[in-house]
Amino acid sequence: MSTDFNLKHLLGIRELSADQIVHLLDTAETFRDVSKREIKKVPALRGRTVINLFFEASTRTRTSFEIAAKRLSADAVNISVSTSSVSKGETLLDTARNLQAMSPDCIVIRHSSAGAPYHLARACSAAIVNAGDGAHEHPTQALLDALTIREHKGRLHGLRVAIIGDILHSRVARSNIYLLSKLGASVSVAGPGTLVPAEFAGLIEQGVRLERRIEDAIVDADVVMILRMQRERQTDAFFPSMREYAVHYGLHLNHLSLAAPDAIVMHPGPMNRGVEVSSEVADGGRSLILDQVTNGVAVRMAVLYLLAGAPGITEKPERQDVSDSTLRNGTVKKQRRKRSLREDQ
Ligand code: CP
């Protein structure tokens, strides 16, 4: 396992090295077993505070960050926009400064504006985790997708991955393209011309192939990743009707005969059954949609542990108790924490 993991925040996959991604995935693997035990808890983040600040709806991401924090013994606090003072006109920056004044170790933010987590990272000393910012990035989704692929295929390098659907509005597509390209998978994307933007031409250099017909992207694919039509982000009519979209871009069982014989199907959720994916595919034997959700907890445990917990990775002297000599020695504390994690697993 690589030990060269020096990261204060997790803002996007684009700025991570392949080594950092692999380290995150390896760490997530060590946490996967915790969720299978009767007592699903380790003391790794005891005494740490994680704030989940969600300005957009979420089922999977928000719940799994909360579960992840609790399984690491951190104190988890959930704030949603409807119950925060943002609804009374407070700015994001003022909200962040006020939260920082309560000394959290980590703030997980989802926001409809691309770049909001970067804004927080400049204003806060807590570690910031991007849980989805507009159409920009959703790094933990790409990490859990990669963990799921690796679990079932044993590797990422050399795999052919087809990403189908509304690429234009998809932060999941962007984060996955960065991650898969960095780890040596070859990616093809397919969708209507209005939903596969010109900017993706720049990614072709990294080996991304653009297709218009989903059949062309799926041929011989090892992984078929379906994306939702993100109607909440669409300001124009990008397709005549959902019915027509379902006919041309919905994934049906017959499409899977074009893919590799052992191809797997993924969807980040929430899915629109009967639009981008048929129920036969979503509930079929190749679908790993719920495995993705399960792996989301392990990935988020790894992210919180590495950003908010492990000393020597994010040095935050203001948190350290100078009266305790072990806390002055990052290596000793790191070893102790690793040992404690092993003993608890
Ligand atoms: N995949 C995903 O981000 O789902 P939620 O919107 O439910 O968090």
Task: Characterize the structure shown.
The protein is α/β, with parallel strands linked by helices and 345 residues long. It has two domains: 18-136 and 293-344, Aspartate/ornithine carbamoyltransferase (Rossmann fold), CATH 3.40.50.1370; 139-289, Rossmann fold. 38% of the residues lie in helices and 13% in strands. It has 13 helices and nine strands. It has helices spanning 18-32, 60-71, 92-100, 116-123, 139-153, 171-182, 214-218, 242-249, 253-256, 279-282, 289-309, 325-328, 330-344, and strands spanning 49-54, 75-80, 106-111, 127-133, 160-164, 186-190, 209-211, 223-226, 264-266. A five-stranded parallel β-sheet has the order 7-6-5-8-9. α6 links the parallel β5 (160-164) and β6 (186-190). α1 crosses α11 (289-309), α5 (139-153) packs across α6 and α5 crosses α11. The radius of gyration is 20 Å and the shape is globular. The relative contact order is 0.15. Mean pLDDT is 87; it is low at 312-345. Bound molecules: phosphoric acid mono(formamide)ester.
